[in-house]
From TrEMBL:
Residue ranges of coiled coil: none
GN (gene name): nnrE
Protein name per its UniProtKB record: Bifunctional NAD(P)H-hydrate repair enzyme
Domain YjeF N-terminal: 11-209
InterPro entries (UniProt xref): Carbohydrate_kinase_pred_CS, CARKD, Nnr, Ribokinase-like, YjeF_N_dom, YjeF_N_dom_sf
Pfam families to which the protein is assigned, alphabetical: Carb_kinase, YjeF_N
One Gene Ontology molecular-function label: ATP binding
Positions annotated to bind K(+): N63, D119, S155
Taxonomic lineage from the root: Bacteria, Pseudomonadati, Pseudomonadota, Alphaproteobacteria, Sphingomonadales
Subunit text: Homotetramer.
EC numbers on record: 4.2.1.136, 5.1.99.6
Cofactor: how and how many bound: Binds 1 potassium ion per subunit.
Reaction catalysed by this enzyme: (6R)-NADHX = (6S)-NADHX; (6S)-NADHX + ADP = AMP + phosphate + NADH + H(+); (6S)-NADPHX + ADP = AMP + phosphate + NADPH + H(+); (6R)-NADPHX = (6S)-NADPHX
Species whose genome carries this gene: Rhizorhabdus dicambivorans
Domain YjeF C-terminal: 209-458
């Protein structure tokens, strides 16, 4: 069974340059692309800020060239617009666009504030901190502005890892040009983007990295029954409440049958409790996924439950204590889904180099598992190199038990037949959406109550 859970591609700086070169080779000129980019930002700024006095900040490269186009087009619409530049244009096309502007250009350091600033200083590809001679006036002008708009990326952001290379200025809108970049979704940069608008300028891109979008899921048909909809077995350990949260999430997340293996009490009557050896329960051919880890404990009893799950031939979701009990980080059987937060990830895989995307990919290849690196910018990675980033999650998810709910959601989608990577992405999207619906002050139980509404917003076939 398949499900589409991947959205728009996300391109690194190098992939973006390659995509541009490929399109330029087919006949699109750099001038035409810059005109399209400037038009996309000018349209977004016009819709957002109207005729408010605007100051466009232009850098020396092609991002600055976009700024000259933006200013010219806004001026044509009657916007009182000025330009402040950090220096002379250094590319041929940027020089052309400055010439077409034809108006005055102020030195950045001497520029007076405006109600709206449009930051076209530096975009994709910046790899070094901003020069203080640029960072200082940028901070000053941003602080005085009522609205702040960034072109492609805020100046001073690492494109591929979301690192802060300059002042942490919060923008009200960022207009991504052509494609999304990792920094649009990775923290800490993602928190600075404001409203994110994608400007289509006719440069398509493909990548093994994508956003986690609203899932397109297979709907139950007339021939389906409780077992074909997915049978999940959740192992109960030292903290029964955590396993119960996972079981309830699996049930509300679409599983047709949920077995809670243990002696605990409480929860919906529809959850089947079985006080039997986990190995015996997993011998049932109708079981579609086993979830081990939430509240498991790290003692001998927990170890025995994990061993029983690893010895079975069932698809697995391993979370929390199960991750801490895994010995080493060698290849695991059956392509399980691992759901570590940063602390568990470090215990499992040690110190891996690179961005969250690169570290998640390396861990997935090492463990031969789908890795869900949890956080406000959750990354899902598969051993074949595919990866996906979730949109920034609400901060109120930082609460006990919410990870148990996510594990249950992934298990439900895995049990119903989705492949491991797709099941993980669907679970991450549903988890985030339920948190948005629950709102501030949520506890993990509230997520479960909002899952039916989140599921109703998926597309089904």
């Amino acid at each position: 069974m398949s499900a589409r859970t991947e959205g728009r591609p996300i391109l690194t700086a190098a992939e973006t340059r390659a995509a541009e070169e490929a399109v330029f080779a087919t006949g699109l000129t750099v001038d035409a692309a810059m005109q399209r980019a400037g038009a996309a930002v000018a349209e977004a700024a016009w819709r957002y800020a109207g005729r408010a006095p605007t100051l466009v900040l232009c850098g020396p490269g092609n991002n600055g060239g976009d700024g000259y186009v933006i200013a010219r087009l806004l001026h044509a619409r009657g916007v009182p617009v000025r330009i402040a530049a950090s220096g002379e244009p250094r590319t041929d096309v940027a020089r052309v666009m400055r010439g077409l502007w034809g108006g005055p250009v102020e030195p950045l350091a001497e520029a007076k504030p405006a109600a709206v600033i449009i930051d076209a200083l530096f975009g994709t590809g910046l790899a070094r901190p901003l020069d203080p001679a640029i960072a200082a006036p940028l901070e000053r002008l941003a602080a005085a502005a009522r609205l702040r708009i960034a072109v492609d990326l805020p100046s001073g952001i690492g494109t591929d890892d979301g690192a802060l290379l300059g002042p942490a200025i919060r923008y009200d809108m960022t207009v991504a040009l052509a494609v999304l970049k990792p920094a649009h979704l990775l923290q800490p940069a993602a928190a600075l983007m404001g409203r994110l608008v994608l400007g289509d300028i006719g440069i398509p891109g493909t990548s093994s990295l994508s956003e986690i979008a609203r899932p397109h899921l297979p709907a139950p048909g007339p021939a389906d029954h409780k077992y074909t909809r997915g049978h999940v077995v959740v192992a109960e350990g030292a903290m029964p409440g955590a396993a119960l949260l996972s079981a309830m999430a699996a049930q509300r997340g679409g599983a047709g049958y949920v077995t809670l293996a243990g002696k605990g009490q409480g929860g919906p009557a529809a959850i089947v409790r079985r006080d039997a050896p986990l190995a015996d329960l997993l011998a049932d051919r109708r079981v579609g996924c086993a979830l081990v880890g939430p509240g498991l404990g790290r003692d001998a009893a927990g170890r025995a439950l994990l061993d029983a799950a690893l010895a079975s031939d069932k698809p697995l979701v391993l979370d929390a204590d199960a991750l801490m009990l895994l010995e080493g980080t060698g290849a695991l059987p059956g392509l399980p889904v691992l759901t570590p937060h940063e602390g568990e990830f470090a215990t499992l895989f040690g110190t891996l180099e690179g961005s969250r995307i690169e570290r998640a990919r390396a861990a997935a290849a090492q463990a031969q598992a789908v890795v869900v690196l949890k956080g406000p910018d959750t990354v899902v990675a598969a051993p074949d190199g595919r990866a996906a980033i979730g949109w920034p999650a609400p901060g109120w998810l930082a609460s006990a038990g919410t990870g148990d709910v996510l594990a249950g959601l992934i298990a439900a989608n895995r049990a119903r037949g989705l492949a491991a990577f797709e099941a993980a992405c669907a679970g991450v999207w549903l988890h985030r959406r339920a948190a948005e619906l629950a709102g501030p002050g949520l506890i993990a139980d509230d997520l479960i109550a909002h899952l039916p509404k989140a599921l109703s917003e998926c597309s089904w076939s």
